[in-house]
Design a protein that fits this description.
heterodimer, A: ABC transporter involved in vitamin B12 uptake, BtuC, two-stranded antiparallel sheet, globular, B: alpha/beta, Rossmann fold, 7-stranded mixed beta sheet, 13 strands
Chain lengths: 350, 350
């Protein structure tokens, strides 16, 4: 083919350099996100009062952040690689219905339901990846189709099998302890799963060679391919990971609330993208970090929960979220310009 | 957690019984959107128009758990109609995707099949009212049930409205709260701005006010929709922020599950009482276990049963009741009547 253009070198992955100056710090992709998180925390610490700063207040936003984060981290990776996944909402609903139907309605051991639900996530993610890489249809369209298709399938099958759209589940003590209990009566176990995901995926993205591939695929697919990176394999793996994350949250919610509803999860579609974008990931791919996504998730959940501690009318919560997203993206743009244009010039001079 | 192990097998049996019943009712109509009359002879209904009383009922899908109870009432009342030489035909849409126009078509279809009386819900007035007016213009007695209220019935020239009234239901719940000692009630509205949920919260507020307390609404932004964790944490935050709140009421059963978790996480279980609109298995179990104060039931069975009885009485003997609207709810289910409610649920009636 005529790939005559000079292959631009893949964007450098963001490793944690030791001994950062302030200039270095300002050039890191998560700096804007960090400032955002600190600002909203201080804001709600002032207006939310003592309860916001108490353990219960911290649990409020940590619990919401943990569930969102388990989805947002793999979605963030996918967006770094230049793709979107809108299907997470339906994957969440279908996995939570799967565990409830298999273990609650049919009465199979809860582990069977959990495995079935997680397998379902893996299969849907794999299909997403396969469709995107084989057909060349934009992932926005493919995963939008899966979002609708899977939600219809979930609703239809739930009605055919159980006759209702809401199925109760009695997960038993072991599953409860592992996935759906509240530590100290406040903190969801999901927080620990989130931390595990941060550590594992953070290492994969920033310290393993595989992470370099993700940035390369998102930066310039053609040059990534010419340098021998298995672009399709990387993408399929990333789609599978994001659907798996959604399936995990579906299982966690079913076990935590002892029931599943077919309408669950749709809010995660946009909330995960919002968290990733606030976290400094470029919508066009090739740029971002796990720390940034974590900060974006925290910012989002502090705002969405902090409003309840202010005692203000929560009618305004969505407005604050909207303003915040815009502010965060503008701030990220500023820092990204510094990171991408300012630093190399300095190096040339020095 | 709220499911008592001893209850589960009985519940499974109840569900199976309901399913069997619904399948039995459905068995006569493989594909068409009109279901058979209850005696299993669809054609009889149309032909009986001249002599007997052919009553046509428009309703929801019969595999919808709510509508399967309405249809149970229709079927039971139809036994009397048949004994008096008439017939009852239940027409329902295949899906809810295009509800207004589909329902309007069903109304027209009832007229063209020679209905002697039409019973229908005014779900989408813009789409359905024209069809209902054609019924009245033809001199066919019309009853509005389930949705629309007496205002819709009066506007269309229908004889009566049979169903519940959201505001009245809310008021009953608020008064019940007040009598149980609640002074500051939070009405959690996950669909703020919708007329029915706003009416429910307004009713709660007025009911609590009548007994000397206050109530305010907690509107949840749409970014929380379908995410029980966000709803639970929002309720917890409100309880921590304002420790005078001693009652929480939710507009749906799923939100009640979230609220139960939020109350528990705020360590307020012994102080804050929980109530909800609507009824399902987990509400019944929580009320039975003493973890929930009440649930407001609009008694769908009676909507079907009374509508058909009223139509038959009017057609056959010119009977009319002075109660307009004829309210089938609210019935407040609490620990005082929980056992009969559970028995009714097992029979597929509530």
């Amino acid at each position: 083919m005529t790939t005559t253009h000079v292959a631009a070198p893949p964007k450098p992955r963001v490793a944690a350099p030791s001994g950062m100056s302030i200039g270095d710090l300002a050039r890191r992709p998560e700096t804007g996100a960090l400032i955002g998180t600190i600002s909203v925390f201080v804001f709600f610490a002032i207006f939310g009062g003592g309860q916001f700063l108490s353990a219960g207040g911290a649990a409020s936003w940590l619990n919401v952040a943990a569930e969102l984060g388990i989805i947002a981290i793999p979605v963030g990776l996918l967006m770094i690689a230049g793709e979107l996944d809108l299907s997470v909402g339906s994957v969440l609903a279908s996995s939570s219905m799967t565990v409830a139907i298999v273990s609650g309605y049919w009465g199979a051991p809860v582990i069977v339901g959990i495995v079935a639900a997680l397998l379902l996530g893996l299969v849907v993610g794999f299909l997403n990846g396969l469709l995107v890489t084989r057909t060349g249809v934009p992932s926005f369209i493919v995963t939008l189709a899966t979002l609708f298709g899977l939600s219809g399938l979930t609703l239809g099958l739930s009605r055919v099998i159980t006759g209702t759209t809401s199925v109760a589940l009695d997960p038993g003590p072991q599953a409860k302890q592992l996935l759906g209990t509240l530590v100290a009566g406040k903190f969801e176990v999901a927080i620990f799963w989130w931390i595990a995901a941060i550590v594992v995926i953070g290492w994969l993205l920033h310290f393993s060679p595989w992470g370099n591939w993700v940035f390369a695929v998102g930066g310039d697919k053609e040059s990534a391919r010419t340098t021998g990176i298995p672009v399709q394999g990387v993408k399929i793996a990333l789609f599978t990971a994001s659907a798996f994350g959604a399936a995990v949250v579906g299982v966690i919610q079913s076990i935590l609330y002892n029931s599943a509803q077919v309408a669950n999860g749709q809010s995660f579609v946009f909330n995960s993208i919002i968290a990733v974008v606030i976290g400094g990931v470029l919508l066009t791919g090739g740029y971002g970090s796990v720390v940034g996504v974590v900060l974006g998730t925290l910012t989002f959940s502090i705002v969405s929960q902090g409003i309840y501690y202010t005692g203000w009318n929560s009618d305004w919560a969505a407005l604050i979220l909207g303003v915040l997203i815009l502010a965060a993206v503008l701030m990220n743009n500023t820092f990204r310009r510094m990171a991408l244009s300012y630093a190399p010039r300095m190096k040339k001079k020095g | 957690m709220s499911l008592k192990p001893a209850l589960r097998p009985r519940w499974a049996l109840a569900t199976v019984a309901v399913l069997l019943l619904t399948t039995a009712c459905n068995s006569g109509k493989p594909s068409a959107d009109s279901s058979s009359s209850s005696d299993g002879t669809p054609a009889a209904a149309a032909n009986a128009a001249s002599g007997g009383t052919a009553i046509f009922v428009i309703g929801g899908k019969s595999d919808d758990p709510f509508w399967s109870k309405v249809k149970r009432g229709v079927d039971d009342a139809a036994k009397v109609v048949q004994a008096q030489g008439g017939s009852v035909t239940f027409l329902g849409p295949q899906t809810y995707d295009n509800l207004g126009p589909d329902a309007a078509k069903l109304v027209d279809s009832a007229v063209s099949q020679g209905a002697a009386a039409v019973i229908g819900p005014d779900w989408v007035p813009e789409a359905e009212d024209a069809a209902f007016k054609r019924v009245v213009q033809k001199g066919i007695p019309l009853f509005i049930y389930n949705a629309g209220g007496i205002e819709a019935a009066n506007k269309l020239g229908a004889l009566n409205y049979i169903g519940s009234d959201e505001y009245t239901a809310g008021k009953a719940g608020g008064e019940f709260f007040g009598k149980q000692g609640a002074k500051n009630v939070l009405c959690v509205n996950t669909v703020p701005g919708a007329s029915n949920t706003e009416a429910r919260c307004r009713g709660i507020a007025d009911g609590v006010k009548a007994t000397g307390g206050t109530s305010k609404q907690l509107p949840m932004p749409s970014s929380n929709f379908g995410n029980p964790t966000a709803v639970a944490q929002g309720i917890k935050a409100s309880l921590l922020k304002d420790d005078t709140i001693d009652g929480v009421v939710t507009i749906s059963t799923q939100d009640a599950d979230s609220a139960a978790s939020g109350i528990q996480q705020a360590s307020a279980g012994d102080k804050v009482k929980l109530g909800t609109f609507d009824l399902d298995e987990s509400q019944l179990n929580r009320i039975k276990d003493g973890k929930q104060l009440f649930a407001i039931d609009q008694q769908p069975y009676m909507q079907g049963y009374l509508s058909v009885s009223m139509a038959q009485g009017y057609l056959k003997y010119g009977l009319e009741l002075p109660q307009k609207p004829l309210l089938t709810g609210p019935a407040v289910i609490s620990k005082d009547n929980i056992d009969s409610a559970i028995a009714g649920a097992k029979a597929g009636v509530r």
